[in-house]
């Protein structure tokens, strides 16, 4: 499908750059590739792919440019918009059995024509003219629900996360650099209940456990998988390489570089 004038555009509220998805959004990739990991499953997007990124899921993105360009169309299907939509359209909403963080939409003529239809409204500054934002979003939503009725149970589920197994969740998601408040929210707890349950289950505080767990994972990746410290620290949840190196040496008595295998020994 050829889109002549659109390089990138965005409809609806901005998406947070953090490691969690605060609202549902539709993504169409124009140029470049993208890989994402949600703590359990890897996802790959290539030009021409459509998908729904799901609200309240933890993900880590890696973008790969094509000739220094990464171009996409993002349309946010935020809760306020979805609730307004439900006031005019009636659907039977039931609990979803789909757990994937990204729902890929098979290519079809309706979505193709919708993408092409954005061109006349494109202002050239990465935005659609404000007068048409909700009109175009509603058009897309009707097409998506017609193409994949399972999205009804995903997009119109406005409930808060249920209380889930804390030990299982933390062991799966400790690499994500989010606040304790977010960990509490995603496990269906208040912050105080989260801290109390965490102490009971793990025998220590969340902060101490997260730091030790991330450092142990970093040690394994550097010493056993021959990864570079500069490639590991972000992946295991640290924000700063120097802080990571300091914490690593304090925990293990050696710096990350000191336990890394020489380049000649790497496979």
Automatic annotation (TrEMBL):
SUPFAM superfamilies in the record: Homeodomain-like, Regulatory protein AraC
Residue intervals of the HTH araC/xylS-type domain: 164-262
InterPro entries in the cross-refs: AraC_XylS_family_regulators, ExsA-like_N, Homeodomain-like_sf, HTH-like, HTH_AraC
Keywords of this entry: DNA-binding, Transcription, Transcription regulation
Highest taxon listed in the record's lineage: Bacteria
One Pfam family cited in the UniProt record for this chain: HTH_18
PROSITE patterns: HTH_ARAC_FAMILY_2
Keyword Cell cycle in record: no
Designated name of the protein: HTH araC/xylS-type domain-containing protein
Organism, as annotated: Sphingobacterium ginsenosidimutans
Entries under PANTHER family matching the protein: HTH-TYPE TRANSCRIPTIONAL ACTIVATOR RHAS-RELATED (PTHR46796)
């Amino acid at each position: 499908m050829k889109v002549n004038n659109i390089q990138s555009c965005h409809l609806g509220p901005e998406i947070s750059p953090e490691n969690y998805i605060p609202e549902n959004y539709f993504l169409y990739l124009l140029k470049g590739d993208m890989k994402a990991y949600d703590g359990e499953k890897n996802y790959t997007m290539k030009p021409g792919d459509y998908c729904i990124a799901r609200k309240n899921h933890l993900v880590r993105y890696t973008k790969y440019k094509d000739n220094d360009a990464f171009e996409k169309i993002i349309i946010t299907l935020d809760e306020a918009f979805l609730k307004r939509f439900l006031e005019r359209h009636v659907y039977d909403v039931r609990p979803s059995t789909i757990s994937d963080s990204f729902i890929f939409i098979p290519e079809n003529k309706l979505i193709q024509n919708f993408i092409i239809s954005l061109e006349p409204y494109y202002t050239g500054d990465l935005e659609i003219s404000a007068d048409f934002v909700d009109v175009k979003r509603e058009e897309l939503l009707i097409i998506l629900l017609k193409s994949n009725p399972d999205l009804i149970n995903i997009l119109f589920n406005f409930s808060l996360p249920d209380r889930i197994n804390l030990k299982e969740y933390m062991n799966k998601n400790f690499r994500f650099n989010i606040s304790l408040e977010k960990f509490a929210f995603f496990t269906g707890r208040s912050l105080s209940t989260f801290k109390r349950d965490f102490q009971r289950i793990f025998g220590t505080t969340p902060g101490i456990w997260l730091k030790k767990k991330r450092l142990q994972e970093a040690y394994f990746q550097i010493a056993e998988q021959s990864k570079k410290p500069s490639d590991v620290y972000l992946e295991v949840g640290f924000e700063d390489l120097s802080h990571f190196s300091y914490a690593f040496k304090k925990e293990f008595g050696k710096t990350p570089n000191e336990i890394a295998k020489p380049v000649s020994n790497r496979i």
